[in-house]
Amino acid sequence: MAEKARIVIVGGGVAGIEVATSLGRGGKAEVVLADRSLSHVWKPMLHTFAAGTARPDRQKVDFFAQARRNGFRFQPGTLIGIDRPARHVRLAVEAAQGRPEADLTYDLLVLAIGSRANDFGTPGVAEHCLTIDDLTEAESFHRQLRRHLLARLDSPEMLEIAIVGGGATGVELAAELKHAINLASDYGSPDLPRRLRLTLIESGPRLLPAFPERVSRAAARTLSDLAVEVRTGAMVTGADASGFTLQDGSRIAAGLKVWAAGVKAPDVLGAVEGLERSRTGQLVVGPDLRTTRDPAIVALGDCASQTDPKTGKPVPATAQAARQQAQHLASHLGRALARGDTVASELPPFHYVEKGAIVSLADFNGWGTLGRYTFGGGRLNGLSARLTHDLLYRQHQIGLYGPLRGTMTWILDDLDHLISPPVSLD
């Protein structure tokens, strides 16, 4: 019997975990998923974990348990290097004693390590700003928020928070923080919302540039009604311990500072020699999702730069695109392996299908645009947009757990909302 192909997937986000689950269930390859965390979360929920309005322990997918149920192996570790000629991946294993690195050999390497906020070299940002690009960072922000909140429950001092970046992450985080502070005021500090000074800073002319202008205007109005100060056309030139400096010389005071602007590939990809990269460090891939200079490496999601051969447009760095790429790769590669083909078999080109976009501002408002392939297109507003935003997450859960366990998880989540505190300060 021929030896099974070795497929190593680095990154357990939306794309990575779906590919590992699907190919593992197929049983035709030896599949290993590596990630620095021990659990997966749905990235569009990170702002709720940061604000404390959702509990990550209820939403995590344990990698070890997922691997056991679906026929793949999980290896904890952070990617630190790739030896392309030898087809080896090097991982740093933080918990290891006497064995600080793990080495994995692959026939096909799938990189799905996401992206990072891009500070564009702005002075002081790396030292003084928080980001929420993954669960570890979201939890770190929540600890800082909790510390600031507890210090002000019995104090007249202002709570000053500033967020840089008026895309979906920044806008949703601003609304979620306002929601969290409103809920926390019931814990014995009713004037806390009035002592919140929350500023959202965007260098461009409007919020949510990826959405229609009507959505941008509506989001700005909603945030303004929530007493969030929105500063558009404001370029940040520096950050320090007490706030931000803008290009016009003005200052925005903030004890808590979040950088949610720009996207770039993780720095580790810059150390991999011989691969073609975009100007933001993403790996350039062809129509079949393989990197242009090494067919043994596939890149998915935010760490990949792909031009759709059908439209000639860049595939966006969104969870929607990452999931479509993952489903395309898992489906066609799974079929090829089932036929007895190798991992080097030619795969059909991937075509991104725009199914719309949704932004949800906590319990306050929400908007969505449906692509022409989704119920013929259209718009969503308010409750319908927020429910659709939640439904996307539930679809992801069902894809990972299967219909029965996915539905049961949904029910248990709803029951948990009835008995758990509305906002966590633990």
Automatic annotation (TrEMBL):
* Keyword NAD (UniProt): yes
Q: Which Pfam families match?
A: Pyr_redox_2
Q: Which UniProt keywords apply?
A: FAD, Flavoprotein, NAD, Oxidoreductase
Q: Report the domain of life of the source organism.
A: Bacteria
MF terms (GO), sorted A to Z: oxidoreductase activity
In the Enzyme Commission scheme, what number(s) does this protein have?
1.6.5.-
Enumerate the spans annotated as FAD/NAD(P)-binding domain: 6-326
- Write the signal peptide boundaries: none
Question: Which InterPro entries does this one have?
Answer: FAD/NAD-bd_sf (IPR036188), FAD/NAD-binding_dom (IPR023753), NDH-2 (IPR045024)
Sequence similarity? Belongs to the NADH dehydrogenase family.
Q: Which PANTHER family match?
A: NADH DEHYDROGENASE, TYPE II NADH:QUINONE OXIDOREDUCTASE
Query: Could you identify this protein by its name?
Result: NAD(P)/FAD-dependent oxidoreductase
